[in-house]
Design a protein that fits this description.
Length: about 150
């Protein structure tokens, strides 16, 4: 699954990671169906064991395992995948926008983003769950203070 994002007139191609969007279950299911289910059903129906499908299913499962392990190793102790390009994907223009945290009175949920000075539209950037998240938001956008709105 790929997506095209526009950031200041430039198009870029983004490939979501297996461990960030739940692609693991389809990979494992496809490997199990190819490597186990189809050969067993084929053996009972035709009496012929389809060993090439077992090999293909095993390769699919092995490839998933390798890709998943590499992605987990790359992400261990680092910034989560969805936060790596926040400043690129959600640009901030201080002349037309100001930083704001929208706070829910009922649930206490806080969402950081930018509000347009002209029409008041709010663009969500990230959820604030701790003071560390707020500091991270301020640091990547070079902000000193952020308004709170309820």
């Amino acid at each position: 699954m790929t997506s095209l994002l526009s950031s200041q007139g430039m198009w870029k191609l983004c490939f979501p990671k297996i461990n960030s969007i739940g692609f693991g279950l389809p990979w494992i299911s496809m490997g199990a169906v190819l490597g186990l289910v189809i050969p067993v059903v084929g053996y009972y129906v035709s009496g012929v064991f389809m060993w090439p499908l077992c090999v293909i299913g095993g390769v699919v499962l092995l490839a998933f395992g390798v890709v998943f392990a590499i992605e987990m190793w790359q992400d261990f102790g680092r910034t989560p995948y969805y936060k790596k390009r926040l400043a690129e994907d959600f640009p901030f223009d201080a002349e037309t926008q100001y930083a704001v945290i929208k706070c829910s009175i009922c649930t206490g949920e806080q969402v950081a983003g930018f509000k347009s000075k002209t029409d008041g539209t709010f663009k969500e950037v990230m959820q604030i769950q701790s003071p560390k998240d707020l500091e991270y938001f301020k640091r990547i956008y070079h902000l000193d203070a952020v308004r709170k709105e309820y």
